[in-house]
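Box 3.1 A note on notation
Throughout this textbook, protein chains are presented in two layers. The first layer is the amino acid sequence; the second is a token string describing backbone geometry. Keep the layers aligned when reading.
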Amino acid sequence: MIRYQVFLRIVENGSFTKTAEEFGYTQSAISQMVRSLETELSVTLFTRTKHGIFLTSDGRAMVPYLRRLCEDYERLLAESSAINRLEGATIRIGAFASVSANFLPTVIKRFKEEYPAVQFKLLQADYETIQAWIQAGTVDFGFLTTDVAGNLKQIPLMEDEMVMVLPEGHPATKKKTVRLADFADEPFIFLDQGKKSEPMEYFTKAGITPSREYRVYDDYTIMNMVEEGLGVSILPRLVLDRHHQKIELRSLTPPVYRKMCVAYRGDDSISVAGKTFMNFAVECAKGRG
């Protein structure tokens, strides 16, 4: 591209010497570029006389084409710069409730301080729906647990402790940690996350069948129900960081964690903006630890 730009400046300046000074090259280097361009195009571009240099008829015919090429190249560079600054970009994210409510708002705020022009489309759903959105391209990427992500590409995000949520004054609050077996006969409030229920899986692995009475779609509703003494529950620590309800939290013995990740179809399915934010979110998650 530099040869095309040099050629056009020679035409405008009418001088090899002046053009060499503008570009910071020697006059010999400028002459070499012109000869190389003439070889590439198989035409003679200039005639040289004792009175100066002049465009040939072939050279005049090349000018509008090379000017358009240079203008298009400048527009290409400008567009590339805008893309890397994420100007006008929209990032589509799929996330489950605890991530969209307690992790992403802070991350998005910090990201927009650096890239104020970027827009976000945040879709919230259960694990299976987010997985389907990623496969279909409805979202650029999504937040999932590693066991649900399946064959999708994954970047580890964080390990989130699952803790027992109890009403104030519950007998188990006298203990520092609790066992699932302690709650086999109590009303249990499950968070409905589609086909997958992490708390139910914990009970099943422990060979325990809880007294199930409620299945709720919202974490905060569960906390309010526990506060009213309607039952107990297991929720991720991420949800409970900012709770205001009068509830008690206890770690389980043995401890239980859900492994969270950023999941996506492949590198070619994510925009520059999407990749930038995805990596930014992962770094923010490391900072939480």
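The chain has twelve helices and eleven strands. The first helix runs from residue 2 to 13.
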